Inverse folding.
């Protein structure tokens, strides 16, 4: 219990560091149209193509990880039940 | 797949992070422009690395106290995943720097010290492989792990802040933690991203630890 309390307090102390940054972002920065952003990409709707591609790659990699996970589970079952029987 | 709720949590968080990081509104800042979205990918790699390497050193100490070889398995695999995140962090940092600071490697104090930290951990992996006896390998690398971690923290968090000039926000004589994650709308993606990537790292660790367990079971 004491251990978790100390960890919690350590995390709390992180926010003490966070207070005096050199530059702090305000709401004005969100509306600052003088800075160039990918607005045209957004207005054409093309950004969603990129999002779809990135998501596909990510889901593919995660799917592969799940398949590997299942395979290891299967081998585990084989190896460890064999040991019990022998 | 026993206890898989955290894997589902990992995937849900990372799907949210990728969608949010690419689509949510971000502050419009000069020079950074849209690259501020890298905050959720580049910076979180380092946070993930710190979490994984912290767990690694905890398992190293646990090994030294108990001499249980499983603890050594966890320790080395968490270090492996941490180094992977570190390499991804330094590579993505170089790509980001190329477009915002003008060159991929500008000898920034934080770049240099994170490169040194990574080399220390690569030496850990080389050291392990150079020893034959399993218990000796585990003990020597656990002790090295403690020293590597003790070097990592000042290299990443203290030394860059003691210099006068650093391009990294929150460094170079400036005690600020990170100017950009102070913003609450960025934080809504940034913190879940840290948890998500750390969980993904842990997932990969768990797979490799299980392979090691099968191997040791087959060897006996």
């Amino acid at each position: 219990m004491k251990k978790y309390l100390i960890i919690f307090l350590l995390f709390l102390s992180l926010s003490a560091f966070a207070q005096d940054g050199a530059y702090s972002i305000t709401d004005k920065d969100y509306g600052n149209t003088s800075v160039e952003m990918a607005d045209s990409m957004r207005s054409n709707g093309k950004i969603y193509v990129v999002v779809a591609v990135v998501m596909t790659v990510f889901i593919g990699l995660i799917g592969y990880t799940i398949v590997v996970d299942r395979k290891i589970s299967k081998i585990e079952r084989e190896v460890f039940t064999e040991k019990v029987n022998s | 797949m026993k206890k898989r709720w955290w894997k589902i949590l990992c995937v849900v968080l990372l799907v949210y992070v990728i969608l949010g990081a690419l689509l949510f509104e971000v502050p419009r800042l000069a020079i950074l422009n849209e690259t501020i979205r890298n905050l959720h990918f580049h910076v979180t790699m380092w946070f993930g690395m710190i979490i994984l390497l912290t767990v690694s050193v905890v398992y190293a100490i646990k090994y030294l106290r108990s001499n249980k070889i499983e603890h050594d398995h966890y320790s080395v695999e968490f270090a492996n995943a941490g180094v992977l995140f570190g390499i991804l962090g330094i590579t993505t940092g170089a790509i980001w720097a190329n477009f915002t600071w003008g060159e991929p490697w500008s000898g920034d104090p934080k770049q240099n010290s994170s490169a040194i930290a990574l080399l220390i951990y690569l030496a850990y992996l080389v050291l392990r492989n150079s020893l034959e006896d399993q218990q000796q390998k585990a003990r020597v690398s656990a002790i090295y792990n403690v020293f590597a971690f003790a070097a990592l923290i000042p290299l990443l968090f203290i030394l860059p802040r003691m210099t006068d000039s650093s391009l990294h926000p929150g460094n170079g004589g400036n005690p600020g933690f990170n100017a950009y994650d102070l913003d609450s709308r960025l934080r809504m993606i940034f913190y879940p991203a840290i948890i998500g990537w750390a969980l993904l790292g842990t997932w990969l660790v768990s797979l490799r630890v299980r392979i090691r367990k099968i191997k040791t079971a087959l060897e006996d």
In short: The first helix of chain B runs from residue 5 to 23.
